[in-house]
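Q: Got a minute? One more chain.
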Amino acid sequence: MKEIRFHGRGGQGVVMGAEMLAYAFVLEGKYASSFPTFGAERRGAPVAAFLRFDEKPIRETHQIYEPDCIMVLDPFIGRSQAIFNGLKGDGVAVINTPKQTLESWPQGLNVLGLVDATALALDEIGRAIVNTCMLGVIAKVTGWVTLESVISSLDMNFDGKLLKKNENLVKRGYESVTISVKE
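A: Always. Here it is, folded:
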Protein backbone atom coordinates (compact mmCIF):
# COMPACT_ATOMS: atom_id res chain seq x y z
CA MET A 1 0.00 0.00 0.00
CA LYS A 2 1.17 3.53 -0.82
CA GLU A 3 0.15 6.55 1.23
CA ILE A 4 0.07 10.21 0.15
CA ARG A 5 -0.39 13.21 2.45
CA PHE A 6 -1.62 16.48 0.89
CA HIS A 7 -0.93 19.89 2.47
CA GLY A 8 -2.56 23.15 1.49
CA ARG A 9 -5.02 25.85 2.45
CA GLY A 10 -8.78 26.05 2.13
CA GLY A 11 -9.79 27.08 -1.37
CA GLN A 12 -6.77 25.55 -3.15
CA GLY A 13 -8.58 22.31 -3.98
CA VAL A 14 -6.71 19.99 -1.61
CA VAL A 15 -9.71 17.76 -0.85
CA MET A 16 -11.01 17.72 -4.41
CA GLY A 17 -7.50 16.95 -5.69
CA ALA A 18 -7.20 13.95 -3.37
CA GLU A 19 -10.59 12.70 -4.51
CA MET A 20 -9.73 13.05 -8.20
CA LEU A 21 -6.40 11.28 -7.70
CA ALA A 22 -8.16 8.44 -5.85
CA TYR A 23 -10.55 8.14 -8.79
CA ALA A 24 -7.60 8.03 -11.20
CA PHE A 25 -6.21 5.03 -9.28
CA VAL A 26 -9.63 3.35 -9.37
CA LEU A 27 -9.76 3.87 -13.14
CA GLU A 28 -6.56 1.81 -13.31
CA GLY A 29 -8.13 -1.06 -11.36
CA LYS A 30 -6.62 -0.23 -7.97
CA TYR A 31 -8.35 0.33 -4.66
CA ALA A 32 -8.14 3.85 -3.27
CA SER A 33 -9.39 5.80 -0.29
CA SER A 34 -9.15 9.54 0.37
CA PHE A 35 -10.36 11.74 3.22
CA PRO A 36 -9.65 15.23 4.58
CA THR A 37 -8.92 16.79 7.92
CA PHE A 38 -9.77 20.41 8.63
CA GLY A 39 -8.91 23.00 11.23
CA ALA A 40 -11.16 26.01 10.88
CA GLU A 41 -13.32 25.38 7.82
CA ARG A 42 -12.69 28.60 5.95
CA ARG A 43 -10.84 29.80 2.90
CA GLY A 44 -7.12 30.11 3.71
CA ALA A 45 -7.10 27.79 6.74
CA PRO A 46 -4.61 24.88 6.73
CA VAL A 47 -6.07 21.72 5.22
CA ALA A 48 -4.67 18.22 4.96
CA ALA A 49 -5.99 15.31 2.94
CA PHE A 50 -4.90 11.70 2.92
CA LEU A 51 -4.93 9.09 0.18
CA ARG A 52 -4.12 5.41 0.21
CA PHE A 53 -4.04 3.10 -2.79
CA ASP A 54 -3.28 -0.57 -3.20
CA GLU A 55 -3.94 -3.64 -5.31
CA LYS A 56 -6.23 -5.01 -2.57
CA PRO A 57 -9.05 -3.47 -0.51
CA ILE A 58 -8.03 -0.82 2.02
CA ARG A 59 -9.35 -1.05 5.57
CA GLU A 60 -7.31 1.69 7.28
CA THR A 61 -9.11 4.99 7.86
CA HIS A 62 -6.77 6.91 10.16
CA GLN A 63 -4.57 9.87 9.30
CA ILE A 64 -1.29 9.18 7.53
CA TYR A 65 1.70 9.82 9.78
CA GLU A 66 4.40 8.11 7.68
CA PRO A 67 3.59 8.84 4.04
CA ASP A 68 5.37 7.52 1.00
CA CYS A 69 4.70 10.86 -0.67
CA ILE A 70 3.72 14.39 0.30
CA MET A 71 2.05 16.86 -2.02
CA VAL A 72 2.22 20.53 -1.07
CA LEU A 73 -0.20 22.84 -2.85
CA ASP A 74 0.57 26.03 -0.91
CA PRO A 75 4.03 27.55 -1.53
CA PHE A 76 4.15 29.09 1.96
CA ILE A 77 3.44 25.76 3.67
CA GLY A 78 6.18 24.28 1.47
CA ARG A 79 8.77 26.38 3.33
CA SER A 80 8.12 24.50 6.58
CA GLN A 81 10.29 21.52 7.44
CA ALA A 82 7.35 20.13 9.47
CA ILE A 83 5.59 18.95 6.32
CA PHE A 84 8.33 16.34 5.89
CA ASN A 85 7.71 14.80 9.34
CA GLY A 86 7.34 11.04 9.07
CA LEU A 87 8.27 10.85 5.39
CA LYS A 88 9.49 7.33 4.69
CA GLY A 89 13.20 6.85 3.89
CA ASP A 90 12.59 6.56 0.17
CA GLY A 91 9.99 9.33 0.23
CA VAL A 92 8.72 11.50 -2.59
CA ALA A 93 7.66 15.14 -2.34
CA VAL A 94 5.94 17.30 -4.93
CA ILE A 95 5.84 20.97 -4.03
CA ASN A 96 4.24 24.04 -5.57
CA THR A 97 6.97 26.68 -5.41
CA PRO A 98 8.56 29.25 -7.70
CA LYS A 99 11.97 28.13 -6.38
CA GLN A 100 14.22 25.83 -8.40
CA THR A 101 15.57 23.97 -5.35
CA LEU A 102 15.05 23.50 -1.62
CA GLU A 103 17.32 25.22 0.88
CA SER A 104 18.05 21.89 2.56
CA TRP A 105 17.30 18.28 1.67
CA PRO A 106 14.97 16.91 4.39
CA GLN A 107 15.51 13.54 6.04
CA GLY A 108 13.61 10.74 4.35
CA LEU A 109 13.32 12.53 1.01
CA ASN A 110 14.54 10.58 -2.02
CA VAL A 111 12.74 12.18 -4.99
CA LEU A 112 11.64 15.80 -5.24
CA GLY A 113 9.38 17.44 -7.81
CA LEU A 114 9.19 21.23 -7.90
CA VAL A 115 6.82 23.27 -10.06
CA ASP A 116 5.40 26.79 -10.02
CA ALA A 117 1.83 25.51 -10.16
CA THR A 118 0.43 28.87 -9.06
CA ALA A 119 1.83 30.64 -12.13
CA LEU A 120 0.61 27.84 -14.40
CA ALA A 121 -2.89 27.91 -12.87
CA LEU A 122 -3.15 31.70 -13.12
CA ASP A 123 -2.13 31.50 -16.77
CA GLU A 124 -4.42 28.59 -17.67
CA ILE A 125 -7.57 29.08 -15.58
CA GLY A 126 -7.12 32.61 -14.23
CA ARG A 127 -7.20 31.53 -10.56
CA ALA A 128 -4.58 30.25 -8.10
CA ILE A 129 -6.27 26.86 -7.70
CA VAL A 130 -3.44 24.40 -8.28
CA ASN A 131 -4.90 20.97 -7.50
CA THR A 132 -5.23 19.72 -11.07
CA CYS A 133 -1.77 20.97 -12.00
CA MET A 134 -0.30 19.09 -9.05
CA LEU A 135 -2.05 15.88 -10.15
CA GLY A 136 -0.08 16.02 -13.39
CA VAL A 137 3.08 16.64 -11.37
CA ILE A 138 2.54 13.62 -9.10
CA ALA A 139 1.85 11.40 -12.12
CA LYS A 140 5.17 12.42 -13.68
CA VAL A 141 7.29 12.32 -10.50
CA THR A 142 6.03 9.01 -9.08
CA GLY A 143 4.87 7.03 -12.09
CA TRP A 144 2.23 5.49 -9.81
CA VAL A 145 -0.64 6.63 -12.03
CA THR A 146 -0.78 7.48 -15.71
CA LEU A 147 -1.35 10.94 -17.10
CA GLU A 148 -4.31 9.56 -19.05
CA SER A 149 -6.02 8.29 -15.87
CA VAL A 150 -5.49 11.64 -14.15
CA ILE A 151 -7.03 13.47 -17.10
CA SER A 152 -9.95 11.01 -17.16
CA SER A 153 -10.61 11.66 -13.46
CA LEU A 154 -11.26 15.36 -14.09
CA ASP A 155 -14.73 14.82 -15.52
CA MET A 156 -16.02 13.94 -12.06
CA ASN A 157 -15.81 17.67 -11.23
CA PHE A 158 -15.55 19.63 -14.48
CA ASP A 159 -17.23 19.93 -17.85
CA GLY A 160 -17.15 22.16 -20.90
CA LYS A 161 -14.49 24.86 -21.14
CA LEU A 162 -13.39 24.40 -17.52
CA LEU A 163 -12.73 20.71 -18.16
CA LYS A 164 -10.56 21.54 -21.17
CA LYS A 165 -8.62 24.21 -19.24
CA ASN A 166 -7.96 21.78 -16.38
CA GLU A 167 -6.88 19.06 -18.80
CA ASN A 168 -4.36 21.55 -20.20
CA LEU A 169 -3.27 22.47 -16.67
CA VAL A 170 -2.64 18.81 -15.79
CA LYS A 171 -0.53 18.42 -18.93
CA ARG A 172 1.41 21.62 -18.21
CA GLY A 173 2.18 20.45 -14.65
CA TYR A 174 3.33 17.09 -16.03
CA GLU A 175 5.61 18.78 -18.55
CA SER A 176 6.90 21.61 -16.32
CA VAL A 177 8.03 19.79 -13.17
CA THR A 178 11.71 19.75 -12.24
CA ILE A 179 12.66 16.39 -10.73
CA SER A 180 15.66 15.87 -8.44
CA VAL A 181 16.85 12.59 -6.94
CA LYS A 182 18.93 12.31 -3.78
CA GLU A 183 22.54 11.45 -4.58
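A: The chain has one domain: 2-181.
Q: Perfect, thanks.
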